[in-house]
From TrEMBL:
Keywords from the named record: FAD, Flavoprotein, Oxidoreductase
SUPFAM superfamilies documented for this protein: FAD/NAD(P)-binding domain (SSF51905)
Name of the protein in its database record: NAD(P)/FAD-dependent oxidoreductase
InterPro entries (UniProt xref): FAD-bind_Monooxygenase_sf (IPR051209), FAD/NAD-bd_sf (IPR036188), Flavin_mOase-like (IPR020946)
Keyword Flavoprotein appears in the UniProt entry: yes
Source organism of the structure: Actinocorallia libanotica
Family, per entry: Belongs to the FAD-binding monooxygenase family.
């Protein structure tokens, strides 16, 4: 087994497996480093972990779920949904758990990839699909003295559930999408909670309702999904058309601050000074109330040093703590830098990306035949569900595989000029977009300030332009 190797059993890898089976392919294996499936929805188990995209849209279009308990499903429910999908479509038997891929090397003579695992095993597939996602390598800040801390310290994606937070003095560093979900939960348990914010986020209210019984009526899941899709898509108007059209988004976020933050000092601290949309717009009903609690202190000065039992602020104040939780996000662009992938002629992927991370339709790369990347460069979204993008990319890959069998070819890779033209168009749009022009710094941008992560427009544009691979853009061998 293993003409096709898929790496990762999260939303992306499972979708690839399901569509391969539907298209009649059975000779594939999914390698998953964890002990169970779900990817990010297996690994992230922090208190309050839930989707911030409405679940009717944050699920496969071909497998709508009548059983979502809430509009924004909690993490265990999403993981169970994925497990059910894997079972229903006969994918579970294709997954090998606890297998972490180390290197990918293209063998030009055999026209096969050599995939080696951390345990030293080698697989020799014709094609490799990466479904590793962008948000799985925890990013920790470099703060002097971190290693000398004697209390509990962990990243939000590696939550230590054995640590009892009740009655403890806790510091949280970071106030992003994960922190705004777990801080309100930690605040209920900790005796004292100090939250270190580097940049405030624009936050809107979260319509986190219980799914009404009517949602289960025939036709409703599809109708709700369509409605949610267009509501979310409307959020792209501000960056895909004109930032001045984001006025409503800003008004909604300001209304949340005015409603939930009566204290003028706290209000000033949490109000962003950059254009809305520059960083991901977050949704929460309990973040601001949590910051207003008596046992919670929001600090806007940075952490200068960590000592055995305390954190020292840049203002020189020493705060004693029992635990530090890092809500500092993930390595995104630089995580790809560490991939050990060698293509034709011994070309390392880092050489191919020496001027920045690119791919054709976010999926394929010249000199790396039959290598496909799900959620590759510039396929991320700030406004809608990435599951939609995954499905478009999976359709693209299937059309590449069809091209191979129809032409009786063995390899497929994009023409360099086609890839450059695609990326030139994409970057031209991005240069004027809110992520570059909005006055904020974010993980969307690489070290040169180029956006290598986000799709610049409406998702239906990606669907229209990328779901089918065009023969004239590819080289078959
Ligand atoms: P994040 O949004 O990147 O937030 C990281 C936070 O840590 C930011 O507040 C950042 O401040 C701060 N930070 C990073 N390095 C720091 C340093 N050296 N010193 C001080 N502060 C530092 O990460 P995340 O919250 O884990 O979320 C990552 C992504 O995961 C999200 O954008 C989202 O796409 C996804 N996510 C999705 C869901 C969902 O429900 N679908 C839930 C959670 C996460 P700055 O803003 O100043 O950089």
């Amino acid at each position: 087994m293993g003409e096709i190797v898929i790496i990762g059993a999260g939303f992306a890898g499972l979708c690839m497996g399901i569509q391969l089976r539907k298209a009649g392919y059975d000779d594939f294996v999914i390698l998953e480093k964890a002990e169970d499936l779900g990817g990010t929805w297996w690994e992230n188990t922090y208190p309050g972990c839930a989707c911030d995209v409405p679940s009717p849209m944050y699920s496969y279009s071909f497998e709508l779920n009548r059983d979502w308990s809430r509009l924004f499903a909690p993490q265990p429910e999403i993981q169970r949904y994925l497990a059910r999908c894997a079972e229903k479509y006969g994918i579970t038997k294709h997954i090998r758990f606890g297998v972490e891929v180390d290197t990918l090397e293209y063998d030009e003579d055999a026209l096969r990839w050599s995939v080696t695992t951390m345990k030293g095993e080698e697989l020799r597939p014709r094609a490799v699909v990466s479904g590793v996602g962008a948000l799985h390598v925890p990013s920790l800040p470099e703060i002097p003295g971190m290693e000398s801390f004697e209390g509990a310290a962990f990243h939000s994606a590696q939550w230590d559930h054995s640590y009892d937070l009740r009655g403890k003095r806790v510091a949280v560093i970071g106030t992003g999408a994960s922190a705004i979900q777990f801080v309100p939960e930690v605040a209920k348990e900790a005796a004292e909670l100090t939250v270190f914010q580097r940049t405030p986020n624009w936050i809107q209210s979260k319509p986190d309702i219980d799914m009404p019984a009517a949602y289960r009526l025939p036709g409703m899941p599809r109708a709700v999904r369509n409605a949610v899709y267009w509501v979310l898509e409307a959020r792209a108007v501000g960056f895909a058309v004109d930032p001045r059209l984001s006025g409503l988004q800003k008004w909604l976020a300001m209304r949340q601050i005015k409603k939930q933050v009566p204290d003028p000092e706290l209000r000033a601290k949490v109000t962003p000074d950059y254009t809305i949309g520059c960083k991901r717009i977050l949704l929460s009903n309990d973040w601001y109330p949590a910051l207003g609690r008596d046992n919670v202190d929001l600090r806007t000065e940075g952490v200068a040093e960590i000592r055995a039992n305390s954190v020292v602020t840049e203002a020189g104040e020493e705060i004693e703590v029992d635990a530090i939780i890092y809500g500092t996000g993930f390595k995104v662009v630089d995580a790809m830098d560490h991939w050990k992938i060698t293509g034709r002629g011994g070309r390392k992927i880092q050489e191919a990306w020496s001027e920045g991370i690119v791919a054709h339709h976010g999926t394929t790369l010249p000199d790396f035949p039959n290598l496909f990347m799900l959620l590759g460069p510039n396929t991320g979204l700030g406004h809608n569900s990435v599951v939609f993008m995954i499905e478009v990319q999976v359709a693209h890959i299937l059309s590449c595989l069809r091209m191979l069998s129809e032409t009786k070819s063995t390899t497929i890779e994009p023409r360099p000029e086609a890839m450059h033209a695609y990326n030139e168009r994409l970057q031209k749009r991005l240069r004027k977009a809110v992520w570059n022009e909005g006055g904020c710094n974010s993980w969307y941008l690489d070290a040169e300030g180029v956006n290598r992560t986000l799709w610049p427009g409406f998702t239906f544009e990606f669907w229209a332009g990328s779901r089918k691979a065009r023969p004239e853009e590819y080289i078959l061998g």
